Amino acid sequence: MDASGAAHVVEDQSAVFAWLADPATHGVPTRRVDTHGAVVVLAGEKAFKAKRAVRFPFMDYSTVALRRAACEAEVSINAPHAPGVYLGAVPVTRDPAGSFVLGGSDEPVEWLVAMRRFDEDATLDRVAACGPLDPATVVALASAVAASHEVAPVREAGPAIGSLASYLSQNRAAFAETPDLFPADRAERLSRTSEAMLESVRPLLEARGAAGRVRRCHGDLHLRNIVLIDGRPTLFDAIEFDEAIATGDVLYDLAFLLMDLLARGQAGEANAVLNRYLWSSDPIDLAGLAALPLFLSLRAVIRAKVLAAGLSSLPDDERPAARRDVQRYFALAEDFLRDVPPRLVAVGGLSGTGKSTLAAALAPHLGRAPGAIHLRTDIERKRLFGVRDTHRLPPSAYTQAASDAVYAVLSRKADTALAAGFAVVADAVHARAGERDAIARVAREAGCAFTGLWLVAPLDLRVDRVEGRRDDASDADAAVVRKQFAPEPCQDGWTIIDASGSPARILDAALRNCAAADAAAGGG
Question: CATH says 124-336 is which class?
């Protein structure tokens, strides 16, 4: 433990820690891992976590009773999302000879969280260090987070908003203490901007609380606290020591994960997680995006402060790199609050032209972090009929009336996301002039730039593409493709893009078209 942590220790636990880490205790080789608040011992297929007897302003483990409560809380909070990992809270007692015993019926002298050990290289921070998360993991990750929020207990908004205000106040103090890491002028500007944004979104956050979007969440949802077990992302190590820290808007909880991905250079993956989350979450979360820049910035500052606090405990040769990381997170926090005008890009074309592939690739490049909101009629149709994304709908779901309803939802959601300050990519066939006019009107009424892209590709290629789809929201098959006819969207001012090339070439053409539109409009 570093010096700052040692100052908060209220009890000597060295004997029980030594016993817990002794291979003879478990009959297998062990490895001890120390943190400021716990000692974890890895022993064969199991792991045991002991809480340190520390008293911090935000965390009090100063008595055996408090440590027992913390262990039991950790199990109860985490077990629903990682049932195969958390085995229970286990007492440490003494036998008649005075030796420590795992379990037992005598008075406990310590408490442990017993866990089933998992592959440490499967935590997502280590997976991400080897390269971008694969698409299947991204989809499953967004689903796991959304599922955790769905069952999280609802809380009142007032205290959660108060916590955000206190974090901003704490940030000011931390900035002032280390001006060599947080330059005074930049720190003041960041603090003032953050405080103003909190006040501007306060009514929104209150409304979201009334709608049930403030909950008792994970609270520490970054990549290191998510592990792949049997190939599926599993959330663990949620905050158990402070209800206030773990309670907040669900988008604030999600923001830690998004920020972590963005900080690791995985903007595409962050954008995909956000959009996959929004596809399955309450539609009210689109309006809630207005608070996401603040949430992202706060998460980046928290990471910067934690790293800054640990600098003194690092070896001299490691400090320069750590200081650069502090400054990088601080700059990221500033960048999240930078104003970027929203814009709307509509991607149209017949089935098999690659609309969704282009839209997903284009979204991370547009608007403020983590990129544009990807709205897709295939997804909205499934939501309208109350089925999962990959469930195949009958022909009755594709009547003109049903399609009109789907396109109306697309326009409403695009308007909501634009009003929240985010760029939008509207992904739909857009075969009818009225559909193209409607999406362009959304941008016009929002006062933002609009770009229409129409994708074309040979029939045989389009057939091959739809026949090769797996686990996709589109119901189009080869028969549908052969029946479709091509309109002439160029008459509406849409740009035709040859979609028969590689995804990279198609994306490059789309980005060049968006850049040209920006130049013609004088920027934006």
Answer: alpha beta
